[in-house]
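Page 37, continued from 36.
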């Protein structure tokens, strides 16, 4: 149930298991699209920034899941492109995190930790930053993570769906789940029975499972075009004060995203113009050329955030009913490890190392 990046990755991975018969249902009339303002999903709005080594998590399950995700995309993007003939924009230039103070002690410590984990992080001083990316301003230093990535979430999810279809998975779009009794789903198109049910419905999860409280956290982002490109070669995702600048080619860039919480009652408020302007101001501060950028499109999506517990939720709700939801700000990054966990649960394999 649910075919955002999480459901699509699960379907694709399970399609590799012989003798499973898989059906995916989703309320949306078509596979995920970039512009669904009417009924926004998370995946259609995501920037696809994959923060592994550069995340502040020193160790533990969340870090392992992040690193697994990056390795998965390194391997699976070429596999999926060959299988489907589709192109999946995948930025392998790494992530550059700008610093605006001289205190780099936390980073020096993390660099040591990462070195022991065989992962590279570098500190760039202002001279290096200026010589590599002269279009940047204000930052006094930066942390460069060459092994982190960025992927186009919509192209990825569509390719996963296509790949799973080619391997025999049945997709039923335009099918809204209205209720559940055990493994039986009541949908807008009738009853659906299964031996195993996986619920990967993002913010839609709580509508079916009232015991699972997932709150929508709105994020706005924008695509802009410049008269000429910022640089003459591909460059990493540049991030400053939690604002990402993602180069998507043809002098076009994504900038985002806001983080807008719902009301106490969980009600989503309309996108906040002031918060969006603040994100743009921050981006222009570290990359002044963006002040002349032409807006191409703006959008928003709803991140599924588990209330009062860490993201994501991957667990058995009852026998043969699995939850794979609540990925909040990192669902693209964590979808591959989620799919590995679901696959292991269904096949009853021990996945202790993840
Ligand atoms: C602006 C923004 C930027 C982001 N940037 C990043 C990023 O850089 N990196 C990153 O890793 N993550 C990012 N995220 C987070 C990421 O988008 C989410 O964590 C991820 O997409 C969650 O995927 P999902 O498949 O669980 O949910 P969704 O994409 O929301 O998919 C859930 C699906 O379930 C379906 N559904 C729901 N209810 C029902 C029902 N009753 N019946 C049938 N179908 C149903 C919906 O139609 C939908 O297609 C960002 C999110 C936003 C909003």
């Amino acid at each position: 149930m649910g075919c955002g990046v999480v459901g699509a990755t699960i379907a694709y991975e399970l399609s590799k298991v012989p003798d499973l018969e898989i059906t995916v249902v989703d309320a949306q009339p078509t596979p995920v699209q970039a512009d669904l303002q009417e009924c926004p999903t998370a995946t259609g709005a995501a920037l696809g920034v994959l923060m592994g080594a550069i995340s502040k998590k020193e160790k533990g399950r969340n870090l392992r899941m992040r690193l697994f995700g990056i390795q998965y995309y390194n391997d699976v993007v070429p596999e999926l492109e060959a299988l489907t003939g589709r192109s999946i924009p995948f930025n392998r230039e790494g992530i550059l995190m700008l610093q605006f103070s001289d205190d780099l002690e936390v980073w020096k410590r993390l660099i040591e930790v990462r070195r022991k984990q065989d992962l590279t992080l570098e500190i760039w001083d202002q001279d290096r930053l200026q010589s590599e990316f002269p279009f940047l301003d204000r930052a006094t230093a930066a942390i460069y993570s060459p092994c982190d990535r960025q992927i186009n979430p919509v192209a990825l999810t569509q390719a996963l769906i296509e790949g799973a279809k080619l391997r025999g998975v049945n997709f039923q779009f335009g099918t809204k789940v209205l209720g559940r009794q055990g493994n039986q789903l009541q949908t807008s198109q009738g009853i659906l029975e299964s031996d195993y049910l996986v619920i990967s419905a993002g913010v839609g999860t709580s509508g079916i499972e009232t015991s699972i409280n997932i709150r929508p956290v709105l994020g706005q982002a924008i695509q802009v075009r410049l008269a000429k490109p910022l640089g003459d070669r591909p460059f990493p995702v540049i991030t400053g004060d939690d604002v990402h600048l993602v180069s998507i080619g043809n002098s076009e860039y994504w900038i985002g995203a806001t983080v807008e919480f719902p009301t106490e009652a969980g009600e989503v408020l309309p996108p906040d113009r002031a918060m969006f302007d603040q994100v743009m101001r921050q981006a222009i501060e570290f990359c002044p050329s963006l002040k002349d950028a032409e807006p191409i499109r703006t959008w928003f999506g709803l991140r599924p955030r588990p209330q009062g517990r860490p993201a994501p939720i991957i667990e058995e709700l009852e026998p043969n009913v699995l939850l794979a939801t609540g990925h909040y700000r990192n669902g693209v990054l964590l979808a591959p490890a989620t799919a590995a966990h679901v696959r292991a649960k269904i096949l009853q394999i021990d996945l202790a190392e993840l």
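The chain has a mean pLDDT of 96. Flag for discussion at group meeting. The radius of gyration is 20 Å.
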